[in-house]
C-alpha cells in the first residue's frame, strides 16, 4: 500500500499549491484544465458538503450513483410545489447568488431533448430515476428525476473542499455547474436521514458531478462509522485504481436502469456452501444505498443457510433486516462469511459491515429483500463495501476491488 500512497500524497501536495478551476464541464473544450486528485470527505450517513453560489452557501448532499442529476431543495415553495418549511435556511435561492443562471429551454447544448410545446411536466410517468427534461411555457428547462425530484435546471458556481488534515484550503471550483433546483422533491426524509438537502450524482450521465468535474475515475475505501472518523471519496488522480486491484467489467444495462454500476453475479456462498451457482444474474454497486438488497429467492436461501450454519436459532426481522438469535456473547467475527462471486473475483463481505449486533444474544444482517418495484433486484450497498478499496473507471467501464483494512490503511497513509 505504501507504494501507492506516496505518489498520492505528492499529488495532494502539488494540488495544494494550485487552485483547481474548471469552467463548465459541459460547455468548453475538454482538453484543457485536467482536474487534480481530490479527497471529498463524507459523513457516515453518506452525505458530502458542497458549496454553491456567490456569496457561497453550503449544503449537505447525499452521494447517489443512481440519480442522473445533482439536485437540491430550492425556493420557491408554493401550493403545487411542497417543500419542507421547517428549515428555510437549508434551501438554495438563486436570487441571492450573482453567479446563478436559470437554463432556458432553447439552450440546445443543455436541453437537447426538449420539444417546445410540452407543458405538462409532471405527467412523465417513469418508474426509474432516469432524467427527463421538459420545456415550460416561459421557456425554462424543467427536470424530473422520477420519484425523487422535479424543478428547474439551473447553473451556478460549485466549490468542493477537500478537508483532509492540512488540506483545508484546497478547493475545486466549477463555474456554470448545472444542477436541479428542486421545487417538488419527493424524497422522503427517512430515505436520506436528517439534515440532507439533496443528492449529488455519481453516475456516468453528462450532468453528473463526475462529468462536470471532467473526471472518469473515483474510488472509496469505507470503514464502519463506529470507527469514528469520516470516510472519503477520492476523485480524479487521487482515485485508487489499477495496480494489484482486481478488475471487474461493468455490464451495459438498458438506458432506463437507474443504477450506473452493474456487474455480473455468478453466485453467492455462505462459507463453503454455494447458492444459485447455475444461473447468472446481475448486481448493482451503489454507495448511496446503505443495506445490501437481494432478490427474494436468494434472500430466502441465504437466510436458510445462515440458520443451518449457526443453528439452533430463531429468525426474525427488524426494519426489514434479517435477524437471528444466538448463544450469548457470540463474536461477530466468528459468524459465517458471505461471498459474492463476480467475474474472476470472489468478494467476501466484511463481517464488520454485514452483521449488526441487536442484543447480546442476537444479531441482524445488513440484508433486505428487494421488492417488486425494484428494477435492480440485487444491490451491494455501502455496508457491504467496508474494508474494500473500490475503484471506478467510467471511460474504461471497469470496477476494481481490493480487500483492505480501510481505516488502518488510511491512517497509515496520512
Ligand atoms: C432563447 O429564448 C429567449 C426567450 O425566449 C430568447 O430571448 C433568446 O433569444 C433565445 N436564445 C436563443 C439562442 O435562441
Ligand atoms: C447554455 O447554458 C450554458 C451554461 O449555463 C451557458 O454557458 C451558455 O451560454 C448557454 N447557451 C445559450 C445558447 O443560452
Ligand atoms: C407550438 O405551439 C404554437 C402555438 O400554439 C404553434 O403555433 C406551433 O405550431 C406549435 N409547435 C409544434 C411543434 O407543435
Ligand atoms: C397529466 O396531468 C394532468 C394535470 O395534472 C392530469 O389531469 C392528467 O390526468 C395527467 N395525465 C396522465 C396520463 O397522467
Ligand atoms: C458496453 O458498451 C461499450 C460501448 O458501447 C462496448 O465497448 C463494451 O464492449 C460493452 N461491454 C459489454 C460487457 O458488453
Ligand atoms: C438451478 O437453479 C434453479 C433455480 O434456482 C434450481 O431450481 C435448480 O435446482 C438449479 N439446478 C442445479 C443443478 O443446481
Ligand atoms: C471463487 O470461489 C470458488 C469457490 O466457490 C472457486 O472455485 C474459485 O476458484 C474462486 N475464484 C477465484 C478467482 O478465486
**Helix percentage range:** 10-25%
Q: How would a textbook summarize the main sheet?
A: 6 strands, mixed, barrel
Please tally the helical runs, counting DSSP H or I stretches of 4 or more residues: 6
- Name given to the CATH architecture of the largest domain: Beta Barrel
Distance between the termini: 12 Å
- The CATH C-level class name of the largest domain: Mainly Beta
Per DSSP E runs of 2 or more residues, the count of β-strands stands at 29
Mean pLDDT: 78
Oligomer: single chain
CATH topology tier name of the largest domain: Cathepsin D, subunit A, domain 1
Poorly predicted parts: 1-21, 27-35, 118-128
Shape: globular
Number of domains as seen in the coordinates: 2
> Structural class, from secondary structure content?
mainly beta
**Hetero ligands:** 2-acetamido-2-deoxy-beta-D-glucopyranose
In terms of DSSP E residues, the strand content is 35-45%
Strand order of the largest sheet: 3-4-11-5-10-9
Q: Radius of gyration, rounded?
A: 22 Å
Structure, briefly:
With 414 residues, the chain is mainly beta. Helix content is 13%, strand content 36%. The N terminus is likely disordered.
Describe the 3D structure.
- With 414 residues, the chain is mainly β.
- Strand 9 and strand 10 (170-185) form a beta hairpin.
- The protein has helices at residues 2-17, 189-192, 209-213, 296-310, 351-354, 406-413; strands at residues 20-22, 38-42, 47-52, 57-64, 71-73, 101-102, 131-135, 141-145, 149-162, 170-185, 198-201, 217-221, 231-235, 246-249, 262-265, 267-270, 273-275, 281-286, 292-294, 315-318, 321-325, 338-342, 345-348, 355-359, 362-365, 367-369, 379-381, 388-393, 398-403.
- It has 2 domains: 29-215, Cathepsin D, subunit A, domain 1; 246-411, Cathepsin D, subunit A, domain 1, CATH 2.40.70.
Amino acid at each position: 500500500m505504501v507504494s501507492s500512497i506516496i505518489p498520492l500524497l505528492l499529488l495532494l501536495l502539488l494540488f495544494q499549491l494550485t487552485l483547481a478551476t474548471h469552467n463548465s464541464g459541459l460547455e468548453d473544450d475538454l482538453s484543457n484544465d485536467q482536474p487534480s486528485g481530490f479527497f471529498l470527505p463524507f459523513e457516515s450517513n453518506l452525505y458530502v458538503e458542497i458549496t454553491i453560489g456567490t456569496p457561497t452557501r453550503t449544503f449537505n448532499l447525499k452521494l447517489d450513483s443512481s440519480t442522473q442529476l445533482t439536485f437540491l431543495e430550492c425556493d420557491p415553495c408554493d401550493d403545487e410545489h411542497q417543500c419542507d418549511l421547517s428549515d428555510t435556511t437549508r434551501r438554495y435561492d438563486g436570487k441571492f447568488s450573482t453567479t446563478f443562471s436559470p437554463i432556458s429551454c432553447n439552450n440546445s447544448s443543455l436541453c437537447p431533448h426538449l420539444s417546445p410545446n410540452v407543458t405538462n411536466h409532471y405527467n412523465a410517468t417513469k418508474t426509474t430515476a432516469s432524467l427527463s427534461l421538459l420545456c415550460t411555457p416561459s421557456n425554462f428547462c424543467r427536470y424530473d428525476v422520477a420519484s425523487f425530484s422535479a424543478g428547474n435546471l439551473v447553473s451556478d458556481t460549485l466549490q468542493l473542499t477537500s478537508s483532509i488534515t492540512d488540506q483545508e484550503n484546497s478547493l475545486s471550483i466549477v463555474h456554470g455547474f448545472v444542477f436541479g433546483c428542486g421545487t417538488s422533491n419527493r424524497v422522503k426524509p427517512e430515505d436520506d436521514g436528517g439534515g440532507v438537502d439533496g443528492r449529488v450524482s455519481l453516475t456516468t450521465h453528462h450532468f453528473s458531478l463526475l462529468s462536470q468535474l471532467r473526471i472518469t475515475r473515483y474510488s472509496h475505501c469505507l470503514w464502519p462509522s463506529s470507527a469514528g472518523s469520516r470516510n472519503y471519496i477520492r476523485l480524479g488522480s487521487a482515485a485508487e485504481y489499477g495496480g494489484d486491484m482486481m478488475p471487474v467489467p461493468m455490464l451495459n444495462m438498458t438506458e432506463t436502469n437507474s443504477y450506473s454500476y452493474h456487474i455480473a453475479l455468478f453466485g453467492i456462498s455462505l462459507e463453503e456452501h454455494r447458492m444459485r451457482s447455475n444461473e447468472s444474474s446481475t448486481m448493482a454497486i451503489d454507495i448511496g444505498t446503505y443495506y445490501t438488497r437481494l432478490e427474494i429467492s436468494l434472500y430466502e436461501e441465504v437466510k436458510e443457510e445462515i440458520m443451518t450454519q449457526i443453528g439452533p436459532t430463531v429468525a426474525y426481522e427488524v426494519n426489514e433486516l434479517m435477524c437471528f438469535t444466538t448463544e450469548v456473547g457470540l463474536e461477530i467475527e466468528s459468524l459465517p462469511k458471505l461471498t459474492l462471486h463476480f467475474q474472476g473475483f470472489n468478494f467476501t463481505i466484511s463481517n464488520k459491515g454485514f452483521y449488526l449486533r441487536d442484543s447480546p444474544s442476537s444479531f441482524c444482517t445488513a440484508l433486505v429483500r428487494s421488492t417488486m418495484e425494484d428494477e435492480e433486484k440485487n444491490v451491494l450497498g455501502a455496508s457491504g463495501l467496508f474494508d474494500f478499496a473500490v475503484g471506478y473507471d467510467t471511460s474504461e467501464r471497469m470496477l476494481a476491488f481490493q480487500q483492505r483494512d480501510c481505516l488502518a490503511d488510511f491512517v497509515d497513509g496520512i
